[in-house]
Amino acid sequence: MTGHEVDPTEGSEDALRASTAKVVEQLGCHIVEGGKPRDQHLTVDAVMQEFGITRPMAREALQTLHQKGLVNLKPRIGATVQALDRWDLLDRDVIAWRLEVAPDSQMRSLTELREVIEPRAARLAALSRSADICHDLTTHARTLLALSEDPDFARPRQGAGIRQRFRDVDAAFHRTLLAGSRNELFWRLSHPVVMALNHRIDRDWAGSHQETVITPARAAGSTDAVLSYPTRPQPIAMWLHMGLAYAVDQGRETAAEAFAEAVLAEIRSGRLQDPVVRDRLRAGLEQFDVNGLPAAHRTGFQDAMATVVHARRSPVVVMGVSGCGKSTVGRYLADSLRVPFEEGDDFHPRGNLERLESGARLDDRSRSPWLAAIAGRIRTAPEEGIVITCSALRRIYREMLRVARPDTFFVHLTLSQEQAAARVAGRQSHFMPASLVASQFEDLEPLEDDEAGMTADATLPVERIVAEIQTELAGRLRGH
User: Fold this and answer.
1) Which of 92, 114, 214, 416 is the most core-located residue (most Cβ within 10 A)?
2) Which of 405, 352, 397 is nearest to 377 (CA)?
3) 428 vs 414: CA distance, rounded Å
């Protein structure tokens, strides 16, 4: 026995199996991440030496990887690392390893798989309308909604049990949906679906590294990328699950398919605002019987659907003096609404920036081309809406923006002159000097009662400000 080998009699059979599984995991991850490139040979002796294990354990590890397609095991040659197209890409371990070393690309692939099978499974489930499936789906949907509204969900430590329960119920919901299709191949694909669901909340939850400040889900670079799991489930996602469950229960196949498609669109950056997705959801809602929902959930469901299917969202202008946090709140709000964000300062002519950097205040004449450029961007805003920052200190400036879109909604972030000056003085590499803060307060004309907008305390945590804005916007949309 070499110094690296382990005597099998020293541990139990279970311990040896666990040790072999660990070697399989380490080798598998190494192959997936490219650390052991294609066509490299892995001999039993080399594996024994690398991991300090017995010959039978090394053989078993390579045999397991052979079964998963990561290596091709041949006598007298050993194991040859295979290309990705030879791997068993639906194997649970292979999926887990790919999520470990390349989560973005694996999540994209898993989500695309879900987009193919889940809407079709929903249609088939509605057509078969099994009593057991309908009971389980609707029960899971109501449970998900209740768990998502638990105040502790977003708290890293206190909410751990709630998130675990939510994760388990969500997995059960989607497994039940696939089982309801009565298609055995769809059912066999439930494990990659569940692994994708679990990865988002286990590994990609936006609140996992924050205790006091809760950050929003990151918006991925692509407008079609899979988003991080938010600090708490988006209400619209829960209502879409509710609609899906009850569409199956009602045997409304068009609605079930549309809701399933929308559930998946919600996790893609910007996809839920896709006109095609919304048109299909509108068609599904025309078939759907809202009175088939529990009475306690009908109003919430209708309000949530209204926020998705209405034709056009109003542009939102985040306004206020320098230092009030327009850019921070604007970006956070745009992320939460899944709409584009524009920094108003980027529309300034170079001459304006030079004047401000020198400590000179802008007059109405110098502000005019800047406001016209912002108005032009508001005029061409996409259907799903836009969030843009602009100090918009005087009412006449706001009127210039309303000419472009009369439904423009203004959010005025308020704070004291002393607080604004302190914030501006503490900023690095910004063109606006603290000496101009006083002049901004001189120019400031707060929103009047007949202006579409709201005020928010700029000193509150950003997530609290954005929550207040979202509540106000949702109320306006219902009113329309």
Assistant:
1) 114
2) 405
3) 22
